[in-house]
Amino acid sequence: MTEVNLVQAVNLALARAMEEDDHVLVLGEDVGIDGGVFRATDGLLRRFGAERVLDTPLAEGAIAGLSVGLGAQGFRPVAEIQFTGFIYPIIDQLASHAARLRNRTRGRLTCPMVVRSPCGGGIRAVEHHSESPEAMFAHIPGLRVVIPSSPRRAYGLLLAAIRDPDPVVFLEPTRLYRAARGDVVDDGAADILGRCFVLREGGDVTLIAWGAMVVEALAAATALEAEGVGAEVIDVATLKPLDTETIVASIGKTGRCVIAHEAPLTGGFGGEIAGRIAEQALFSLLAPIERIAGYDTVIPLPRLEQLYFPDASRIADAARRAMAYR
Q1: CA–CA separation, 279 vs 295, rounded Å?
Q2: CA atoms of 112 and 238, how far apart (whole Å)
């Protein structure tokens, strides 16, 4: 067991997958010689060679198209898009080809590819480097969408994504790359996609989050505990397919719910979770569902960035509002 940060956990998972399966390839802009803009692929070129670690041109559409072809012909490509602000050109390849291949061929072909990309803000980046487009990908039938919140989850979920027979969009919270540290056992054990994780148990209010917001939710739970409020914290981890069962079970216990995400409120994935709670756990609710999210605007440049993000104080305030219903 080794203590690593999140980007190191990604690197460990990539190396483990490539060591175990010669069909796993890594491709993207600067992933080889430079080891990636965040060094997530550092050392892979030296270890596995240029035939399996491919530096590509600055052409996201070509990266995705090549990955679709590789996946359809028996390889398991892991494509890196440097920032999610540059990910929009690949949507055609994902929606029109990768996500439809199993259906189009009646199961004769699958497309086991992973698209990795840093997501979210918090590193004082320039425009197009701080997007949170997870809801957009979750809306595409045939895609799985995964966002880890810790080194351990990054390792286990990435291995599961690479081994999955269908395309996975794997979004890595940029601000957690080096801020989040934890023990990781490099044993090749994968987590299960499509499962939420209860990180903290409580009986008064359920805090639901994913990615970087999980850290804020845990901090909010600690603050609420000092006030005598027991907050249960759920890390969604896999947005699609969504583990509704775990969420509904928690609402049945607490009766109150706060959903937190960094993406803008309107059309955010929190609305999907709220809808499922309303459908399946309405009579368990003791208070209206609270949603804490980014604002409906382009994420600001560095000077105003921190004013945009939901944080532990906003999450805790929402929980207090929910607790006011008796």
Answers
A1: 26
A2: 17
DSSP string of 198-217, one letter each residue: EEE--SSEEEEE-THHHHHH
What is the spatial distance between Cα 199 and Cα 313, in angstroms, rounded to a whole number?
19
- List, for residues 33-61, the tens digit of each pLDDT value: 999 999 999 999 999 999 999 999 999 99
Q: Is 23 a catalytic residue?
A: no
Exactly one of 97, 129, 139, 261 is catalytic; which is it?
A: 129
User: Which domains are present in the chain?
Assistant: 2-184 (3.40.50.970), 197-323 (3.40.50.920)
Interatomic CA distance for residues 100 and 261, integer angstroms: 28
Single pTM value for the model:
0.96
At residue 131, what are phi and psi to the nearest 5 degrees?
A: -80, 155
Mind listing the pLDDT tens digit for each residue in 248-294?
999 999 999 999 999 999 999 999 999 999 999 999 999 999 999 99
